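Q: How would the structure tokens look for this protein?
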Amino acid sequence: REVAHMQALEWLALAVAIQYHGAGPALVSKITGCGGQQARDAMAALEARGLLKPGAGSFCGRVQPLAKGMTNHLVRFALNGSECLLRIPGEGTASLLDRRQEYEVYQALAGRGISDEVLFFSPELGYKITRYIESAHNCDPGCAADVQAAMELLRRMHGMELRVGHHFDVYEKLEDYVALTGTRELPFPDWRHTFAAVQGLRELLERCPQRRTLCHIDPVQDNFLIGPGGATLIDWEYAAMCDADIDPAMFCIYAGYDQAGVERTLRLYHQGTADRVTRFKTYAYMAASGLLWSYWCEYKKQMGVDYDAYEAQQYGYARAFSALAAQQAQLLGGVGEREEALL
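A: Here is the predicted structure in token form.
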């Protein structure tokens, strides 16, 4: 089809025109880094296809800006009768994310029936255009059926044992985010104690058995779309090789679950009661991830975007679940030969 055969520069020019409500060759050239003549050719090609208004550089179709995400900005638009979604990188994301790695992830996911359908992706600029998923709703963490569908999708994805060339280590990433913010200090009176408690879990966590596979890392409930055909998982920009148990842990801290909610989620993901080693790992990942996203919020604050309530929630997980993980670690010393053999 015509849209499928667009050249990369034409897709970029279209994305720029939609983002800025109109774009001339000079703006396209500046943003995409292409030459002036290439920009003029791209704009002319889009005008010839009836996608841009001649001379105005504005998109001919319907555009609907959506609420800002925490990492990106989203715009829904209609293109040749098809509903699409434009992802525009948000403030400070160039320091937080590697779009080339994200592109590699989508290559690994292509045709697997797990993720959204990518129509265009610019690894250099981070623009992404996907097919809009109709008749779907975001996962409701309070709905058992929705959470079950989400956990089934995670379990199926992990079982595929997909591989990419980069990895995610929550403690390494924590060090990166501390370096980005320029300080370890957090706006909480007991941050030193919490930081030390989370760090104290690292050695035992690294000794635990791991199922290394492609993980989403950011499975917030809004990234699960539940539709008539089942669940779809979108927004793979943080995805990397990691221990599979990190994804259910991340889901829980995004959903705002208490300990009972975490246990329900683990039963759904593991199709039964999780063993003590898995429970320790989950609590430890929740604690480390809560601290990680606290520093993420601090960095975004430096970029002029405040997520104070979210930061307080995530820090609360770092504080509470570092203590719960430490309790589980004490139990691991006498839980029987099976768990001792694992460690």
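The radius of gyration is 22 Å.

The beta strands are 63-65, 72-79, 82-89, 118-121, 128-131, 137-138, 212-215, 224-227, 230-233, 240-243.

Upvote if useful.
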